Amino acid sequence: MESVVLPTRAFVNGSYLQKFIDKPVTFIGSVLKVASDSKSITLQSTDDQVVTVHFHEPIDSSLDGWVEVHGYAKSKGTIGGESYYNLPSSITNDFEKQQFNETVALIYSLSNPLK
What we know:
By secondary structure, this protein is mostly beta strands. The protein has a domain at 10-88: CATH 2.40.50.140. The chain has helices at residues 89-92, 97-109; strands at 10-12, 24-34, 40-45, 50-55, 66-75, 78-86. A 5-stranded mixed β-barrel has the order 2-3-4-6-5. Strand 5 (66-75) and strand 6 form a beta hairpin. It is globular and about 40 Å long. It holds the Pfam family Rep_fac-A_3.
């Protein structure tokens, strides 16, 4: 059996996106707008920044609420999206944005003992 190496994605919010240009990221945001061609979405990050995610193919489902995006950071406010997951309200009803932002900040303030 052939092994497959998957890239490690960094969890980021709007503030940390620019530190991961051309690297794989996981981003959580609230849907503000889906483009008319369904190939991009505009999200509000957990730290209230606006981020646009561009996909190669049109989105094939209705998106609303909170979305988790996997892709590559392209600029301060842009992600090249590879996949997305519409998070159910049963998970996000009590989602604490501030706690998520604090967790992201904590992750990048600690040194990585595995390096």
